Amino acid sequence: QDVLRYALTANAPETKDNDFTWADFQARNNNELVAIFGNFINRVTVLTHKYYHGEIPTPNELLEEDQLILDQLQAYPKVIGDSIERYRFREAQSELINVARMGNKYLADAEPWKLIKSDPERTATILYIALQIAAALAVLSEPFLPFTSKKLKQSLGLDPLANPLNWAQIAESSTYLPKGHLIAQSPLLFRKIEDEEIELQRQKLAQTKMNNQPMDDNHTPQKELVNFDDFTKMDLRVGTILSAEKMPKANKLLVLKVDVGVDQRTIVSGIAEHFSPEEIIGKQVCVLLNLAPRAIRGTESQGMILMAEDADGALRFVAPEQAIKAGSTIR
Q: How far apart are CA 304 and CA 314, in angstroms?
């Protein structure tokens, strides 16, 4: 739910219309939520448990870059809030991701995993600052990623009753998770979406679109009802066209020789304007076998080939999907 909400907000129209695409949905999830937001939270919580058993370390002397991070965190509630109040939700959400970007860059530049043995005091300060960023993300993400925000608050021990933290506190304070506070292992906030999943969703969407298409008003109205006994009187069989030739002086008629299993029959069919004799030889078709014979231009027709006709008048054979023995019953 959060991923879809995030992708839709990222494409929300502010100055121009935008279309939702599965490719953008996948990219937003993989490149932003997984690689930026989720990656930062995972790194900082894993390192905290690895070095301090899940306890917020005691910070030491803050360097200029540390104080800059805390100052920027205090500014973000107003930056994001102002965008929301101006209904610029895409802009506000982008600023939220900038908080996570800032956290990733801070960790990458400080490299606490390299300092843990040579400078454990500096490492403690780095992780302390990074955890304040994580706490700010847990609060500031709520309008955009409410379910993620709830999970993150729980893992950071930000109980809404016992240990509440809100936007005003982010702006007014620089300590959101005090030293000695215990955090849990962070759950997987986001997972990478593979190409195969996106292709499956595209197929589902295409099928849904097809199913929801309005009925074509050009369809021929339904004929009068027939009872079941009348239907069972029709002998429908699969036939194979053995030969075909044009009927002399008749532009619309083909004379077909059709193997219908019980025998080979001559059938006159009005399909000459749609098919050439050569292209239908060997074609399997559906034949109404027990239609009373009738003479058509001097040739006795001993059955009827079933055809489908679209709104434009184009004809298509009603035929089995796979080759089947001539004479097979259709029911």
A: 18
Burial of 108 (0-12, 13-18, 19+ CB in 10 A): exposed
The radius of gyration of the chain from alpha carbons, rounded to an integer in Å, stands at: 36
2-207 CATH pick, 4.10.910.10, 1.20.120.140, 2.160.20.10, 1.10.730.10: 1.10.730.10
CA–CA separation, 257 and 261 (whole Å): 12
What distance in Å separates the CA atoms of residue 14 and residue 216, rounded to the nearest whole number?
Answer: 37
pLDDT digits (tens, 9 = 90+) for 266-321: 999 999 999 999 999 999 999 999 999 999 998 999 999 999 988 778 899 999 98
Q: Which residues pair with 265 in a beta bridge?
A: 258
Tell me the domain boundaries of the chain. 2-207, 228-317
Is the pTM higher than 0.85? The answer reads no
The CA distance from 244 to 239, in Å, is 13
Q: In residues, how long is the chain? A: 331
SS3 299: strand
Same fold, 2-207 and 228-317: no
Rounded CA-CA distance 168/272 in Å is 81
Spatial contact of 260 and 237, defined as CB atoms under 8 Å apart: yes
* CATH node for 228-317: 2.40.50.140
